[in-house]
Known about the structure:
The structure holds 2 protein chains of 2 kinds.
Chain A: H1 8-20, E1 26-30, H2 36-44, E2 49-51, H3 56-68, E3 72-78, H4 79-85, H5 87-96, E4 104-110, H6 128-134, E5 138-141, H7 146-158, E6 162-167, E7 187-191, E8 196-200, H8 204-216, E9 223-227, H9 235-242, E10 247-255, H10 261-271, E11 277-283, H11 294-300, H12 305-317
Parallel strand pairs in A: 1-2, 1-3, 3-4, 4-6, 5-6, 8-9, 8-10, 10-11
Antiparallel strand pairs in A: 7-9
Chain B: H1 4-27, H2 33-37, H3 40-48, E1 66-69, H4 78-85, H5 124-137, E2 144-149, H6 156-167, E3 173-179, H7 188-191, H8 197-203, E4 207-212, H9 216-228, E5 235-240, H10 263-272
Parallel strand pairs in B: 1-2, 2-3, 3-5, 4-5
Helix pairs in contact in B: 1-3, 1-10, 3-9, 5-6
Amino acid sequence: MSIPLKTMRDVFIEKLHGLMRERDDIFFLTADFGSPKLDAMIEEFPDNFINVGISEQNLINVSAGLAIEGWNVYAYAIAPFITMRCYEQIRVNLSLLSLERPMNVTLIGVGAGVSYDVSGPTHHCLEDITLMRLLPGFTVLSPSDYVTAEMLPEYSLREKGLKYLRFDSKPHSPIHNAGDIDFKKGFVELKYGEKILLLATGYMVFVALQLHEQLLQVGIKTGVLDIYELSNPDNENLSGIMEKYPHIISMEEGIIGRGGLDSLLSEIIRLHKLDSLLHPVGIKNEYSFAIGSRNFIHNSYGFGIEHIKELIMSIVRS
Amino acid sequence: MGNESFINAITSKAKWVFSETLKIHRSAPETRVASALSCIEIFSTLYYGDLIKYYPHDPLNSDRDRVIISKGHGSICFYPILADLGFFKMDELKNVGQEGSFLGGIPDPIIPGYETINGSLGHGLGVACGIAVSLKRRKKNQNVIVIVGDGELNEGSNWEAINFAAHHKLDNLLLIIDDNKISMLNFSARIINAAPLSEKFAAFGWEISDIDGHDIPALYTAISTCLKSRNKKPKVISAHTVKGRGVPSLENKPLSHIMNIKSEEIDEILRGI
């Protein structure tokens, strides 16, 4: 049986489209960014859709205006643009304004990490985990597979507030069963291991699973955990898992040491006084014009699968 | 509009607002008074001219017209109007900028009567576009009125919204430019010359009125015409005003934005009223 490959955006939009048949309080806005499934939504609900054009500042501002009038608003664009081009609009008109004017706005950024590999650094998104975690009131969700993404429309309608969804741009196979996903908890323990836990988000969960399989061949059993809630995961539960491992390798397609997943984990280690050592894997604070496949770019930034394997072997030897 | 006593009533309110604005500045010198003095007639006409619907005891009533004050820093003249209309107690005006007060040097939406965040410039018009779309989508007839300064129009986000409003035929949207010709460091025309502003708005598909922003009958006519019109075009009133109006040490001074008025000058002006 072949496993279907799907993009997060398509399953998300298709699911949301279905929900729009049941309720008339959803607005979907895009900054001229599409999807085949979006075409179908627009055709059926043209009055609940706006393409603001290539103008992310206005995308956020119009979204805020609709949201304070009571609409459930979805704003959709390429990840670096919907976060960094309009960061102050997000700060002022969503994060700050929502203190006084409750709103339900979901920002959908497509192109997590280097998923737009050959498009180069303008289209890579290495800073968004840090930036969006920084804003009060935001829930940051970084799913690893489309099964998780497909559950986000219902979740975002049920749990009002501000959310940033960090979607991979590429089609992938599923990892999870829908029943295992719990956004309040924020993570799923995929593999149990000894000594080393690979604690990954987004696409890096695929890399972690690959590493797990490869290392099993040489008798090393690493744990694998997918964390998709990066703002406020269930710390008690998570620290309970982390404390079983003397070594934790955080894995993110983003800049490390500056407020991303690794910072979230070091904060948990500090707060819960864990003895675990954290080894952050990701992009050191630098940019690159390297052109090539995703693996090639990972390698050029120094966090390809072989680099991570080396790190693991050095921990095992230590 | 030919009702002289009605216009006189607005004029006398505007004079009172002027005095109260100076008093606020005297007790809270960090307030941007020059910028507030140019838009007194705009706010007074809007709120005392029976032009819009508002609900002082239920400020977010869904039947209200939405007023978005994008040039927030320059709107302390709006505080006395809100107090006078009953949005909050008149006594609160003494507390502007004080610890624990909800009336800051730059207003926030914790103040009843303010819809959005103000102070960071170039935000109001885009948010107003979203509100205007929502009202139209729900077939509501209220208007959305946005007040900006001319210097604020340097912000590119405005022009994204100006494009958007025309494309979406937001004829329930009225932009009032308090065109006081002065930004923070100099005359606007010497920083980024926006002229010809009217022609620019016309080219973007907006309907424009050019008026004297201190002329209450002209403001009344322009605002009332714009708010009634449903011709598939957003409207803009370019209200030509004088920054620091009524205070000789500020009027038309290029640095008036960051200047304070001395207490003695305020006392002298108030005695003269």
